[in-house]
Amino acid sequence: MNVTERFLNYVSFDTQSDSSSSQVPSTPGQLTLAACLARELKDMGIEDACQDQYGCVYGHIPPSRGCTRPGLALIAHMDTAMDMSGANVHPRIVKNYDGGPIVLNQEKSIVTSPKDFPSLQAHIGQDLIVTDGTTLLGADDKAGVAEIMSLAEFLMSNPDFPHPPVCILFTPDEEIGRGSDHVDLEKLGAAYGYTIDGGILGELSYENFNAAAAQVTFHGVTAHPGYARGVLKSAMLIAMEYQSLLPVYQSPACTQDREGFFHLDHMEGTTETAVLKYLIRDHDHTLFAERKQLMENCVQFLNCKYGPGTAEIAITDNYQNMYEKVREHPELIQWAVKAMELTGITPVITPIRGGTDGARLSFAGLPCPNLCTGGQNGHGRHEYVSCQSMEKITELLKNLVKLFA
Ligand SMILES: [Zn+2]
């Protein structure tokens, strides 16, 4: 089975995760795909392939003869995003893409056009797998799953091809931020690894945001507005003043690349109480700490101005920039770049303006940059993946494991 055939099989499983569920994994469809993957790995001859009670799939490919290098993990997630249904996906292959608009659904007039999605231009002449416009495709991250499975099949039928122990892991519930919750790193047994969960061919990411959430609460005093002079203190107005103290251009709408931001995510208020909720993001550790300090300082300023206890802040750290951990293993970056060059792929190194499962795994002891899958426009009906990209990435993984041998 080639990588495209595998991919088309995996997208036939509905594995949408659900953040409102308290089950592990959050939806039963993920267990069905997990069972299928574990069985396929076993059929390839990977004896210890199994699915655990949390829906994680593990499988270990022994090293080629004489290789004493530590284990290399290759990780992809099985679930699809909540933004759009992943049930009854009807994939279609657009052969030899001509660079024009792709009609996904005539009846509903759904068209993927290069005007809206300029990345299509990079795929002229290739075969693109698209949806019928009513669901997402699931290339995020079933393209990653298919590429790892194809590599596994190659290694199992070519035991002399140089490679270290390859530790395969497929996780559920990545899209709802629970992908690494139940990963057993001891069972995985790798020293480092890669998530295969990125976008366009060549993408390599080893930096992500440091992330925190802040809740700022303001306490006011109510009074009859006609007789409020000197008494009334509006929590809402003080909240607005707080927002005005923050640097106006350091918002998501005005920042890019490695620029961090304060993002007002939610607000509610009455005269008596107002609450502002923020996301704080920065790639740089020091700048990130300064952002949190600035938010504290603004609270202190308002407490000096309006009286102690007027404003209070609670800051919760969410995740950290994986680069802190990845840089201790520079070969993870060097060899990914080298493997791309060997495969004829131009590396596109991009800092992630978000987080990944790899960030959490990196801090749990498994340094884990992110590699491309070839998928584009994830989480929506315009999602597509190039068959040639998936083939190239399978080749890339072969060259990569060889470098680690
Ligand atoms: Zn993903």
Describe the protein.
The protein is an alpha+beta fold. It has two domains: 3-207 and 322-403, 3-Layer(aba) Sandwich (Aminopeptidase), CATH 3.40.630.10; 210-319, 2-Layer Sandwich (Alpha-Beta Plaits). The chain is 30% helix and 21% strand. A hairpin with a 3-residue loop joins strand 12 and strand 13. The chain binds zinc ion. Zinc ion (ZN) binds at residues 77, 140-141, 174, 197.
Strand content: 15-25%
Quickly give the CATH architecture of the largest domain. 3-Layer(aba) Sandwich
H and E string: HHEEEEEEEHEHEEEHEEHEHHEHEEEH
Global geometry: globular
Topology:
Blueprint: H1 3-10, H2 29-43, E1 50-51, E2 57-61, E3 72-77, E4 92-94, E5 102-105, E6 110-112, E7 128-130, H3 139-157, E8 166-171, H4 185-188, E9 192-196, E10 203-205, E11 210-219, H5 235-245, E12 261-269, E13 273-282, H6 285-306, E14 311-319, H7 323-326, H8 330-343, E15 348-349, H9 357-363, E16 370-371, E17 375-376, E18 384-386, H10 387-403
Parallel strand pairs: 3-8, 3-9, 9-16, 10-15
Antiparallel strand pairs: 1-2, 2-8, 4-7, 5-6, 7-18, 10-16, 11-13, 11-14, 12-13, 17-18
The structure holds zinc ion (ZN).
The site of zinc ion has 5 residues, from helix 3.
